Amino acid sequence: MTYHNPHKKNGTITTKVVCAVCFITFSFVWLYWFQADVLAVAQHVLSGGKTHYDRLLGAIIITVALFLVHLGVFAVTRLSRRTHALTYLPSMLMLAILSDNDIVANGTLSFGLRFWLVPLILALWVGAVWLAKQVLPFESDDKVPNGLFSRRVWQNLLQMAVMMLFVAVAGNSKAVFHFRAHAEIALMRGDVDEVLRVGHQSLESDEALTMLRVHALARKGKLGERLFEYPIVGNSETLLPTCPCSSLLILPADTIWKSLGARPAFRMPAHRYYYCLEHDSLATPLVKDYVLCSHLIDRDLDAFVAVLPKYYEIDASLPRYYREALVLYQHTHAQPALTYHDPAIEEVWNDMRELEDAYSDPDERRLRVFEKYRDSYWFYYFYKP
Question: How far apart are CA 373 and CA 190, in angstroms?
């Protein structure tokens, strides 16, 4: 007569269910919330722009496919008990490879995992599976708790946690790349508010992300009011997609060109491009703020003051950064070509100068000014490299 221990079967099922729920939840959340934009860029590059990635459908399909891989591995290895979680390693490794991609300088897709690391991990895994298979027949279920909070379940969860940590570490964690991808996808949906929200509190940026934010602010009519709330990288030339360092990942360049008026027939300096648009009556209302903010980014106050009256009345209704630039111009030119006085802005200017005078050490002075005036044009003008 053969005795079947019901706790053994129940314990095995409990371990399998816990590991399955853990994997499916992690995979879906990771793909849907953290890697959707990266995968959208990857699919765009691999398909030559012919297909588009859907974050919900993609997360579901990839998660199901990876779980089927696990089922295949389990069918071959039959690992259970304390080592059942090892059957998820190939799926986790595939998830890590999918997550670790980047766009290199020539616009091609690059995977970051070293070519020798994947076979090394698989070799170690094969060894661990073989060892587990040797030990498995000697494990007894008679005196081992098999409940949801048993040691066996927690041993498997620990292995799952290690594999999830590996996926998180291996995945593309470049903040600016994520910001850029998310901003471009948001612009493709016409959601300029999302472009301005993503990475707003971060000090990291690059030329392309600056270009995307400038475009979004211009479309909202807030370029002169909010530009220096964000870290600025680059110069007036990098505000247009003709510059290699401002190349786009997935957003069509015509999105920016059409918003300004027209695509240039050939590459030309930014200010020449704006002049041609206005000369040919092609310029949209966005161009005026592009022109003015380009001069501010280049710290060319003389050029800024020369063209400002062409676009705006010189009064208190000017956008914030144009007023700050005018006050700065008054204090840096003995014979200003344009006279402007704004008591409120002047008071803030004087407060900043007093704060600077209170510190003799340049690094300490910069830190204190940053803490209080980091979003002012003056901080950008004097302290940004």
Answer: 32
- Residue that has been written with the tokens 């980014």 in this structure: 297
Mention every residue, 6+ apart, whose C-beta is less than 8 A from residue 378: 324, 328, 349, 352
Other C-beta atoms closer than 10 Å to the C-beta of 282 total 12
111 membership: H or E segment, kind and range: strand 109-111
**For 73, how many CA atoms within 13 A lie in the half-sphere containing its CB?**
22
pLDDT band at 104 (very low <50, low <70, confident <90, very high): low
178-206 residue pLDDT tens: 999 999 999 999 999 999 999 999 999 99
Other beta carbons within 10 Å of 20: 15
For the question of whether the overall pTM of this predicted structure is more than 0.90, the answer is no
Return the ∠ at Cα 221 (arms to 219 and 225), rounded to 5°: 130
**Cα–Cα dist 79/303, whole Å:** 73
Mean pLDDT along residues 318-341: 95
Distance (Å, whole) CA 224 – CA 13: 62
Average pLDDT, the chain: 90
Exposure b/e, 335-353, CB count within 10 A at least 16 = b = eeeeebebeebeebbeebe
**Cβ atoms 197, 216 nearer than 8 A:** no
Number of neighbours of residue 88 by Cβ within 10 angstroms: 27
CA quadruple 314, 315, 319, 324: dihedral, nearest 10: 80
Contacts of 299 (CB under 8 A, 6+ apart): 381
- State mean pLDDT over 154-164: 95
